[in-house]
Specification:
Elements: H1 2-16, E1 27-31, H2 47-56, E2 61-63, E3 70-72, E4 75-80, E5 86-91, H3 105-116, H4 125-129, H5 135-140, H6 144-148, E6 152-156, E7 159-163, H7 171-174, H8 185-191, E8 207-213, E9 217-222, E10 236-240, H9 245-253, H10 270-273, E11 279-292, H11 302-310, H12 314-322, E12 327-328, H13 351-364, E13 376-381, H14 384-401, E14 405-410, H15 412-420, E15 426-432, H16 439-442, H17 459-470, H18 474-491, E16 494-505, E17 510-511, E18 527-528
Helix pairs in contact: 1-9, 11-13, 17-18
């Protein structure tokens, strides 16, 4: 306790005595927390990747600084047919790529098809294959003939038509995300997997990639050919891959960092930082959970998965380990998503009840007191908070269930590859909604989702989610999604742990930085006073 108190005291005094700003008046320097795995918008899935990509590219639609509000990006208008299945977009005039060349509707046609092609391996491909006419067939056999049969076509240089298989209430929301960004065909085809290098990449967003020194920094500068360049005030962005959160706090104190990054402060310091005028703490649209590899014994038994999930004392985790205002999660979808409400779950607020169920389920599965079960492993990406949570939970499993689990950390790219290839037993995960709708969470665990990464499939779950997508009645749609989530929480290929908060330090000189549910830094809206 004494050591912890000293840490709090040091942190409070060091941040309160904030040094003058050392970063340039027209620059934004922030902690990106890790090295991006990729900057290809059709492949990107991780937070460190997306924070860079949203500066370099822009879709038909984009988001305002608060993230929940949608607005026009490269499009100036759109029209939806009466049946809700045909969207016609009108592009803004005189759109250009960052190299000054003309950007047209055909660039979106190329990009939408590229995203679903097997050689791209886009994890969000199901967004288009499940919703856009002909895309599933094209993805299975990407021939010129099949491309002509899809629902995406350019009517002229500034008009794009998209025909859906069914009404999708959140389709326009999807079009603001990286998977729907355009990429320049000639650059991609010339340089292949290396097209995103600084000397090659061509984008259409507010910034250009100037430098990428691995493990050092990523530098971006204002794109003079961006359609709304006149309103962009920050001329330079520097992203630093700082893993140690205290290092980010120290740099902030020294005036060398404008933003400590998404949750870029040690959790142990959060309680003492709430009164600091430069500290931001607000709810997040993010669930912290563990994936369980349902293709590996004994985790292929839902009773074992449920037992492990129930044995996690979520109250202890948020009160004694994370301590940043997180809320224990009894379902996967975060609280307060529009009118959506999850159904009652098997995870009780009474941990004693949960533990009794967990022990019985484990015994029913043939492992009374953990006897006969092999040693399991839990991977997490390098971060002190992930480590603390992992060690606390593995101790609970060992102490309360007799299940031995070894926790180990992985560098970001290695961790992602292991998760994607199902090369794990249990994997630390977090999901921030791509758009403010319960579907942004529940679509993950459909059979066609490349973001599933558990090996779990359930036809009833798929059917319920698919039916919800076709339903325009909000109440009925919510009911269908809630039933699907109930199946997920019965089969338990995941163990939800808590709903996250977002917390960080922001320089007082920074204007236009709006705390949002997923803490995305839309730099084009920022300035410094």
């Amino acid at each position: 306790m004494l050591i912890e108190a000293l840490v709090f005291a040091f942190a409070f005094s060091s941040v309160s005595s904030l040094a003058p700003m050392q970063t340039a008046q027209d620059s934004f320097v922030f902690n990106n927390k890790a090295e991006p795995e990729t900057l290809d918008p059709h492949v990107v899935t991780g937070t460190p990747d997306s924070y860079i990509v949203i500066q370099l590219f822009e879709g038909l639609m984009t988001r305002k600084a608060d993230w929940t509000s949608i607005t026009y990006g490269q499009a100036e208008s759109y029209h939806v047919s009466k049946d809700g299945q045909t969207y016609t977009f009108k592009l803004k005039p005189n759109l250009k790529w960052s190299d000054g060349s003309k950007l047209t509707a055909e660039d979106f046609v190329y990009s939408f098809h590229r995203g679903v092609e097997p050689k791209t391996l886009g994890q969000y491909a199901y967004w288009f294959t499940d919703n856009i006419a002909g895309m599933k067939e094209y993805a299975a056999n990407p021939t010129p003939e099949n491309q002509k049969k899809t629902g995406v076509r350019a009517l002229d240089d500034r008009s794009l038509e998209i025909k859906l298989l069914k009404p999708v209430p959140y389709f326009v929301q999807m079009l603001s995300e990286p998977f729907a960004y355009p990429v320049k065909k000639s650059v991609v085809e010339k340089f292949g997997d290396r097209w995103t290098r600084p000397e090659r990449i061509v984008g259409n967003g507010p910034y250009n990639l100037i430098e990428w020194k691995v493990t050092d920094k990523i530098v971006m500068e204002k794109n003079p050919n961006y359609v709304d360049a006149a309103s962009v005030q920050i001329k330079k962005i520097v992203a630093l891959p700082i893993v140690e959160r205290q290092t980010a706090v120290d740099l902030f104190r020294q005036g060398r960092l404008d933003w400590t990054g998404y949750n870029g402060v040690p959790n142990a310091l959060v309680p003492s930082m709430r009164s600091d005028k430069n500290f931001r703490l607000h709810p997040g649209f993010i669930t912290y959970f563990y994936r369980m590899n349902s293709t590996r014994a004994p985790l292929n038994d839902p009773r074992v998965r449920m037992a492990l999930a129930l044995a996690i004392n979520r109250g202890d985790i948020v009160e004694k380990v994370t301590r940043a205002g997180e809320i224990p999660a009894s379902n996967f979808v975060p609280l307060g998503v529009g009118t959506y409400k999850s159904l009652a779950t098997t995870i009780s607020s009474d941990h004693k009840v949960n533990l009794e169920k967990a022990k019985k389920l484990l015994a029913d599965a043939g492992f009374p007191g953990g006897k006969g079960m092999r040693k399991l492993s839990l991977q997490y990406n390098s971060d002190e908070n992930h480590k603390r949570v992992a060690l606390a939970i593995t101790e609970m499993w060992n102490r309360d269930l007799g299940v031995q689990v070894e926790a180990y950390n992985q560098e970001w790219k290695v961790y992602l590859k292991a998760q994607e290839s199902l090369d794990y037993d249990i994997s630390r995960s977090g999901w921030a909604g791509d758009y403010p709708d319960a579907a942004s969470f529940l679509e993950l665990f459909t059979s066609t989702s490349a973001n599933n990464m558990t090996g779990w499939k359930n036809s009833e779950y798929d059917a319920l989610f698919s039916e919800s997508n076709k339903t325009l009645d909000p109440k009925k749609r919510d009911e269908l999604m809630a039933k699907a989530e109930a199946i997920l929480m019965t089969e338990m290929p995941i163990a939800p742990i808590f709903y996250m908060t977002n917390f960080s330090f922001v320089r007082p000189e920074l204007q236009g930085f709006v705390p949002n549910l997923v803490d995305r830094p839309y730099v084009k809206y920022m300035s410094k006073k």
